[in-house]
Specification:
Layout lengths: L5 E7 L4 E8 L4 E5 L2 E5 L4 E3 L1 H13 L2 E6 L8 E2 L1 H11 L6 E4 L2 H12 L12 E3 L4 E4 L2 E7 L8 E5 L2 E5 L19 H12 L6 E4 L14 E3 H7 L9 H13 L7 H8 L29
Parallel strand pairs: 3-6, 6-8, 8-9, 13-14
Antiparallel strand pairs: 1-2, 2-3, 4-5, 4-7, 10-11, 11-12, 12-13, 14-15
GO molecular function, one term: sulfur dioxygenase activity
Keywords: Metal-binding
Protein name: Metallo-beta-lactamase domain-containing protein
């Protein structure tokens, strides 16, 4: 019996997101981490190309999906969790639960109030809320949900074998770390989460949630080892202390624009990927805030 999973990394280039399909080779049981819906802000069109590529891979490999795992409520892409759950439930004798960390409720409450999302569309929408360090199974494999706050307060990483799927905590070494300026984000928390990650064995692979290859690197990279990060991560390599990291992270965050799909993503993702209920005219609506200068605010 193998103690290590088979890992398929599938990149969604528009949002720069890594989707993961992780399988137990002895049973062909698998989980999905952070799946993506395609969304065009120019036309408001939602499509399922990225999620359908996962379904095709699942069918090709003969996997049975046991769970759909979210690392957090993403602010830069729409999750395909609900779509995949519905499609997979039609094709197998098991409805895979959509799982996330137990602190998602505080995130849901915050953004539901901000965007006017009705309670019946987000309360209790996730099937499983993980406790910190809770373990779960993938066939004969074991996984663990690890709380990694900083980018968001609800953020989880998933440890499966010698692999940590760290979501938006650490990025590629030439990028560093994720932003901490969203509500509930905290650079000190991210420093401590990063040190927790880098306290793992040097050979552990850290699989990131995104990659945005900078000039000089053309291809996205899904993982690097703990040892790589300790030597090379521009924000987090050995020798950088908490005070230096927090100053660097806050300076960087101050110059970042908000994610292009911030408002759309949060409204869909606190619903676990379900679309808003249709109006009496059959439309499904999201709220987008207007930006007005003081002179224009009549």
């Amino acid at each position: 019996m193998s103690s290590e999973p088979v890992i398929h990394n599938v990149f969604e280039p528009t949002s720069g997101t890594w989707q993961y399909l992780i399988a137990d080779p002895s049973t062909s049981t698998a989980v999905i981490i952070d799946p993506v819906l395609n969304y065009d802000p120019a036309t408001q069109a939602v499509a399922t190309h990225a999620a359908d590529s996962l379904l095709s891979l699942i069918k090709e490999k003969g996997y049975k999906i046991d769970k759909i795992l979210e690392t957090h409520a993403h602010a830069d892409h729409l999750t395909a969790a609900s779509y995949l759950q519905k499609r997979l439930s039609q094709n197998q004798d098991h409805k895979p639960p959509i799982c996330i960390g137990k602190r998602i409720e505080q995130v849901q409450n915050l953004f539901a109030e901000r965007y006017g999302v009705p309670g019946e569309e987000y309360k209790g929408i996730f099937d499983k809320l993980f406790d910190d360090d809770e373990t779960f199974t993938i066939g004969n494999l074991k996984g663990q949900a690890i709380h990694l706050p900083g980018h968001t307060p609800d953020h989880l990483g998933y440890m499966i074998g010698d692999n940590l799927f760290c979501g938006d905590s650490l990025f590629h070494v030439d990028i560093g770390t994720a932003r901490c300026d969203f509500p509930g984000g905290d650079a000190n928390d991210l420093f401590r989460s990063g040190r927790k990650i880098l306290s793992l064995s040097d050979n552990v692979k850290i699989w990131t949630g995104h990659d945005y290859p900078p000039q000089g690197r053309s291809d996205p990279v899904p993982w690097m080892s703990v040892q790589d990060h300790k030597k090379l991560n521009k924000h987090f390599k050995d020798g950088i202390n908490e005070e230096e990291f927090v100053a660097l992270r806050k300076e960087r965050d101050a110059g970042l624009a908000e994610p292009k799909l911030l408002h759309q993503s949060l409204q869909i993702n606190i619903r676990a990927g379900r679309l808003p209920s249709p109006t009496k005219f059959g439309q499904r609506l999201l709220h987008l805030p207007l930006k007005l200068t003081e002179e224009e605010a009549w």
